[in-house]
């Protein structure tokens, strides 16, 4: 059975990202006739259909000719199915890049061959690196406008891998492809215009790149979503703990720790509506039956013994997503796994300067689209992993308690400081 | 992880199923009065099927709500009632006809009632104080839906404001809302039409018979095969013919078109969906063709 690759695309304004996504959909025959007719009707001035119109969905986007919101696209080849998070390029929508990156196994970053790596590219790479998107592709677009010049491609590719090296990406995790989304060169079909390029086309690469099998090897983590207690005639005494395996593997008979209390028990059974399982892996929704009734409710986390001690004070890196800036002393809600607690922001200790990717100390506050390092205090102990160890239980949201808005994406630990990104 | 046991990642349909079940359990855990929108169509039937799996062996902890346009296919209503009985569900019905009868809504000149569903839907949500409303919408359906969140915040007027939609990170959903607001929840967001049919086939999910090929008297309007019914029949010059057809979507009878098809079995439907060159909405929904931004406008008003 075919597998699934989740990818995100990012680029700055006018890099031709919507055209590239439209091209992928069109050339994989994922565009159906009525959609294509609508594009042809809407293309200004006749000529070749404007493939970007396939993806710019909201009216304000069509009016401004830019993409504002993350759009999800689906296409498939015989080898693989793809979910593509198409994220906007403009600086004021960087929060959408964070959103796309949070679930991506691979990110495609676009640059215009005429301008090469720009501030926006550096910002996007920094986001992808901080969120540890496992694989990156640099799409050097508009090669037709630089006469498919080999030196231009190599110069841009070299500058880009300089960035990714600094972020800790291995050489084989990064690929740079010269292409023209508008003309189709090296998107799906190999281009006759780049005889000097021996690598894969973009689609070939997406079809063959190993899918990082999430966190199979990570320690078992299972935030409890819901307690299933039917109290029906057929199941009068059934009690099971429903959730999605966030990381690792659980087997019948395994000892587990109940966090944050620290009590221990054993897994008696792994249930699904289709029958019992011997084991469940990350990404699977199951119901666990336990040997003891420990009064477990939604918000608890079941974990392999040896998980970090739950804490009420910790450091984290934030991607700040809201117009209202973050200042020390702010009182917010924090959602981690299936538990929401109160939080107070202590010091804002560092901010990433997205111009040169240097780290600024004591910035005072974080504005929209800023990434920075903070200290947090929460009202109840939380079973946190470092994001770099277990992303699923090392991540959290900050939420405005009154308005309900999502304010920040949080990564437990100090990845911003641990990985200096300065590149000159 | 022992070295002797290779781990294979779960297949794509199982991954989609787990994701949908996760979403449903989050709603059960965080909301007070969720409801499933249930038309008897394939996507809403999938919601019921997934809810049954999500809470097994307990019964589905949500009621279902049908917005009844009054332009129904008999087969679908019969199916709806059978599903409600089989799963022991509580059925709420919001009737467009009631609104037309007492003058709160006026029949449109074209006889189409899909756009009239919004008011009865919002009234029913307010009356039952539903704070989460499950819909079967998928992001592959249409361009405005491609930008929809899994948790989609609606104002007290049911409106969808693109600028107020929250970033959705990892699988941490933020369901906070003010009194009177509610959240539309779309567990099938990442399914495509083909995934839906492959999942229906894998799970043996029963559907109303009109999804499979049958003979029916139809007439052609606006490039679609419509069926005559209490909502009105062919106009002058619209010739009635007998065709072998099936439906790809189930909606208001006045504006849901059938497609010519001989696919009588699930396997045949699957093969047909694989080869189709039209989207299901483009092929069968007159109301989505009204304008370039038809769906976006109706979403803003509080439509599904």
Topology:
The complex is a heterodimer of chains A (424) and B (304).
Chain A lengths: L2 E9 L5 H11 L5 H10 L16 H6 L6 E6 L3 E7 L7 H10 L2 E7 L6 H12 L4 E7 L8 H17 L7 E5 L23 H7 L12 E3 L2 E3 L11 E5 L4 E3 L3 E5 L3 E10 L2 E3 L1 E3 L3 E6 L10 E3 L7 E10 L10 E6 L2 E14 L6 E3 L9 E12 L12 E5 L6 E7 L2 H4 L6
Parallel strand pairs in A: 1-3, 1-4, 4-5, 5-6
Antiparallel strand pairs in A: 2-3, 7-16, 8-9, 9-15, 10-14, 11-12, 11-16, 12-13, 12-15, 17-21, 17-23, 18-19, 18-22, 19-20, 19-21, 22-23
Chain B lengths: L11 H19 L3 E4 L4 H14 L8 E5 L5 H14 L3 E5 H6 L16 H10 L4 E3 L16 E4 L27 E4 L7 H11 L10 E8 L2 E4 L12 E8 L10 E3 L5 H10 L4 H5 L9 H8 L3
Parallel strand pairs in B: 1-2, 1-4, 2-3, 4-6
Antiparallel strand pairs in B: 5-6, 7-8, 7-9, 9-10
Helix pairs in contact in B: 1-2, 6-7
Task: Describe, in short, the structure shown.
The complex is a heterodimer of chains A (about 425) and B (about 300). Chain A is of the alpha+beta class.
Q: Percent helix among the residues of chain A?
A: 10-25%
Classify the secondary structure makeup of chain B into a structural class: alpha/beta
Strand order of the largest sheet of chain B: 3-2-1-4-6-5
CATH topology (fold) name of the largest domain in chain B:
Rossmann fold
- What structural class do the secondary elements of chain A suggest? alpha+beta
The first-level CATH class name of the largest domain in chain B: Alpha Beta
Query: How many β-strand runs of chain A?
Result: 23
Largest sheet of chain B: 6 strands, mixed
Structure report:
- With 424 residues, chain A is of the alpha+beta class.
- Chain A has three domains: 3-208, Rossmann fold (3-Layer(aba) Sandwich); 221-303, Beta Barrel (Elongation Factor Tu (Ef-tu), domain 3), CATH 2.40.30.10; 311-418, Translation factors (Elongation Factor Tu (Ef-tu), domain 3).
- Helix content of chain A is 18%, strand content 33%.
- Chain A has eight helices and 23 strands.
- Chain A has helices at residues 17-27, 33-42, 59-64, 94-103, 119-130, 150-166, 202-208, 415-418; strands spanning 3-11, 71-76, 80-86, 106-112, 135-141, 174-178, 221-223, 226-228, 240-244, 249-251, 255-259, 263-272, 275-277, 279-281, 285-290, 301-303, 311-320, 331-336, 339-352, 359-361, 371-382, 395-399, 406-412.
- In chain A, strand 18 (331-336) and strand 19 (339-352) form a beta hairpin.
- The longest helix of chain A is centred in the middle third of the chain and has 17 residues, at 150-166.
- By secondary structure, chain B is of the alpha/beta class.
- Chain B has two domains: 12-194 and 295-301, Rossmann fold; 210-290, no CATH class.
- In chain B, the strands form two sheets. Chain B has a six-stranded mixed β-sheet, sandwiched between helices. Chain B has a four-stranded antiparallel β-sheet with strand order 8-7-9-10, with no helix packed on it.
- In chain B, helix 1 packs across helix 2.
- Classes of the chains: A alpha+beta (424), B alpha/beta (304).
- The interface between A and B is large, with 76 and 60 residues.
């Amino acid at each position: 059975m075919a597998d699934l690759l989740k990818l995100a695309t990012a680029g700055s304004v006018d890099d031709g990202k919507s055209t590239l996504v439209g091209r992928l959909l069109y050339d994989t025959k994922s565009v159906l006739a009525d959609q294509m007719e609508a594009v042809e009707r809407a293309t200004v001035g006749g000529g070749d259909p404007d493939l970007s119109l396939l993806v710019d969905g909201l009216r304000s986007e069509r009016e401004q000719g830019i993409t504002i919101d993350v759009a999800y696209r689906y296409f498939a080849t015989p080898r693989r199915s793809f979910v593509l998070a198409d994220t906007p390029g403009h600086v004021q929508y960087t929060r959408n890049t964070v959103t796309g990156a949070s679930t991506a196994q691979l990110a495609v970053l676009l640059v215009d061959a005429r301008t090469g790596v720009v501030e926006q590219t550096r910002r996007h790479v920094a986001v992808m690196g901080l969120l540890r998107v496992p694989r990156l592709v640099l799409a050097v677009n508009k090669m037709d406008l630089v006469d498919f010049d080999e030196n231009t491609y190599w110069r841009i590719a070299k500058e880009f891998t300089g960035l990714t090296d600094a972020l800790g990406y291995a050489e084989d995790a990064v690929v740079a492809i010269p292409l023209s989304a508008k003309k189709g060169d090296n998107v799906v079909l190999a281009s006759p215009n780049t005889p000097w390029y021996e690598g894969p086309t973009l689609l070939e690469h997406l079809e063959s790149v190993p899918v990082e099998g999430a966190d199979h090897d990570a320690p078992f983590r299972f935030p409890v979503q819901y307690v299933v207690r039917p109290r029906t005639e057929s199941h009068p005494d059934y009690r099971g703990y429903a959730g999605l395996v966030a990381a690792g593997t659980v087997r019948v008979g395994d000892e587990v720790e109940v966090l944050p209390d620290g009590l221990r028990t054993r897994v008696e059974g792994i249930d699904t509506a289709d029958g019992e399982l011997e084991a469940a892996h990350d990404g699977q929704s199951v119901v666990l039956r336990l040997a003891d009734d420990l009064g477990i409710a939604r918000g608890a986390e079941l974990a392999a013994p040896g998980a970090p001690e739950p804490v009420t004070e910790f450091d984290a890196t934030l991607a700040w997503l809201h117009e209202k800036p973050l200042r020390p002393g702010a009182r917010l809600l924090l959602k981690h796994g299936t538990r929401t607690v109160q939080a107070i922001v202590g010091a804002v200790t560092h901010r990433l300067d997205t111009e040169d990717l240097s780290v600024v100390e004591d910035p005072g506050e974080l504005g929209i689209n800023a990434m920075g390092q903070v200290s947090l205090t929460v009202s109840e102990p939380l079973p946190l992993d470092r994001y770099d160890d277990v992303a699923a239980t090392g991540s959290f949201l900050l939420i405005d308690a009154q308005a309900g808005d999502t304010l920040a994406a949080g990564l437990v630990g100090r990845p911003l400081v641990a990985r200096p990104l300065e590149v000159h | 992880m022992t070295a002797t046991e290779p781990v294979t990642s779960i297949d794509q349909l199982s991954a989609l199923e787990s994701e949908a079940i996760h979403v449903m359990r989050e709603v059960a855990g965080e909301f007070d009065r969720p409801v499933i929108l249930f038309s008897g169509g394939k996507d809403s039937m999938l919601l019921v099927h997934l809810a049954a799996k999500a809470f097994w062996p307990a019964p589905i902890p949500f009621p279902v709500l049908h917005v009844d346009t009054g332009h129904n296919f008999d087969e679908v209503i019969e199916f709806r009632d059978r599903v409600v009985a089989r799963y022991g569900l509580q059925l709420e019905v919001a009737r467009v006809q009631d609104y037309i009868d007492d003058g709160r809504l006026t029949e449109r000149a074209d006889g189409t009632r899909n756009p009239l569903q919004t008011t009865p839907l919002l009234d029913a949500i307010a009356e039952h104080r539903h704070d989460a409303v499950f819909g079967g919408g998928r992001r592959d359906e249409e361009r405005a839906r491609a930008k929809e969140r899994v948790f989609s915040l609606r104002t007290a007027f049911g409106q969808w404001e693109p600028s107020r939609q929250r970033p959705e990170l990892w699988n941490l959903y933020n369901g906070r809302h003010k009194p009177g607001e509610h959240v539309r929840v779309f567990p099938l967001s990442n399914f495509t039409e083909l995934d839906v049919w492959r999942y229906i086939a894998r799970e043996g999910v029963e559907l109303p018979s009109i999804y499979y090929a049958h003979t029916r008297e139809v007439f052609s309007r606006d490039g679609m095969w419509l069926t005559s019914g209490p909502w009105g029949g062919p106009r002058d010059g619209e010739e009635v013919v007998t065709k072998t057809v099936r439906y790809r979507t189930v909606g208001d009878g006045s504006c849901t078109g059938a497609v010519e098809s001989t696919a009588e079995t699930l396997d045949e439907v699957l093969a047909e969906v694989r080869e189709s060159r039209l989207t299901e909405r483009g092929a069968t929904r007159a109301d989505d063709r009204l304008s370039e931004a038809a769906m976006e406008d109706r979403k803003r008003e509080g439509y599904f």
